[in-house]
User: Which sequence fits this backbone?
């Protein structure tokens, strides 16, 4: 049902409605991740309006990655805009360390900074400005990696890690054009991050080149279809994880320097569940994400055993020992 208020711009109403749904039932304080761009600025404005009506204390946090000249001034400008909206705001400087790539390293530093700020504020949740367009881009990037349904399931509207705050993404059903229109309707001037138009980044190439071609060739609605696909695959992943949790206690045992899995029980499961169990066990024990080829080779120790020797995996080995598959640290083997 559409929110109708005299003089209220439809884009502003849509963003507020999405934020309201995300805040319902919450207590205490929340942090809004603010970059100054249109998505996070529209999110901050909606949160400033909605949070007080739910008895929630909200504060904006601007992360200064220090990756561009004048980044501190840009971050402070965004904080000032938040204060003008009625949100207390702070700037948190982070150090971006070399990692798997510039995007991943910046993301890791950003989330760590947001978690620290949330702890200081006493906030149990962090609101992030990812939109439906971001979700569609994430699905396409996952498709290109070929890393399975977990990658294609995209970003969850709510993610609760073992430690740290809950991450909320209220705008995953909202198009980027809507956040731009909401900012314009409220007289807000978003900052244009030059990284968001730099073709050196894969996400930018998807945004600028891939999605427009898909929309032109296949017709409108491609982004929405990709987002629906992500929703469905997250449901599937949750169901599989529940099945794994129910199964794994009966078929997995600790082994010297590793873990072992019952051959008969593993082989009795459907391929989709069997392969997920293999990936889950190796990731849980050794922190290693197996490729599909590696996963299938380990599973063959149960389903197609012909005396093959140990399978070399990153940091560990998988080998058949009697009626069990042992996955052990390479040094111990």
Assistant:
């Amino acid at each position: 049902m559409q929110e109708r208020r005299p003089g209220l711009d439809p884009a502003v109403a849509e963003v507020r409605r999405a934020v309201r749904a995300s805040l319902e039932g919450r207590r205490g304080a929340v942090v809004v991740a603010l970059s100054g761009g249109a998505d996070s600025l529209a999110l901050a404005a909606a949160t400033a309006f909605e949070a007080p009506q739910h008895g929630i204390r909200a504060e904006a946090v601007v992360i200064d990655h220090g990756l561009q000249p004048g980044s501190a001034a840009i971050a402070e400008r965004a904080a000032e805009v938040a204060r003008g909206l009625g949100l207390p705001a702070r700037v948190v400087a982070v150090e971006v360390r070399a990692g798997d790539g510039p995007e991943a390293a910046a993301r890791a530093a950003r989330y760590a900074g947001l978690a620290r700020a949330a702890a200081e504020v006493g906030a149990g949740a962090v609101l992030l400005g990812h939109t439906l367009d971001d979700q569609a881009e994430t699905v396409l990037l996952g498709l290109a990696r070929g890393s399975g349904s977990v990658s294609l399931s995209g970003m969850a509207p709510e993610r609760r890690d073992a430690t740290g705050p809950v991450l909320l993404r209220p705008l995953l059903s909202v198009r980027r054009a809507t956040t731009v229109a909401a900012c314009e309707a409220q007289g807000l001037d978003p900052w244009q991050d030059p990284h968001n138009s730099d073709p050196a980044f894969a996400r930018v190439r998807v945004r600028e080149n891939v999605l427009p071609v898909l929309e032109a060739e296949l017709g409108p609605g491609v982004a929405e279809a990709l987002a629906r696909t992500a929703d469905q695959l997250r449901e599937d992943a949750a169901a599989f994880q529940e099945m794994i949790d129910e199964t794994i206690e009966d078929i997995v045992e600790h082994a010297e320097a590793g873990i072992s899995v019952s051959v008969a029980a593993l082989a009795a499961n459907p391929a989709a569940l069997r392969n997920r169990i293999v990936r889950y066990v190796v990731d849980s024990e050794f922190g290693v994400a197996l490729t599909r080829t590696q996963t299938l080779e380990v599973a063959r120790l149960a389903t197609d055993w012909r005396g093959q020797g140990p399978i070399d995996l990153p940091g560990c080995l998988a080998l058949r020992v009697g009626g069990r598959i042992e996955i052990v640290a390479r040094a111990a083997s």
The mean pLDDT is 91.
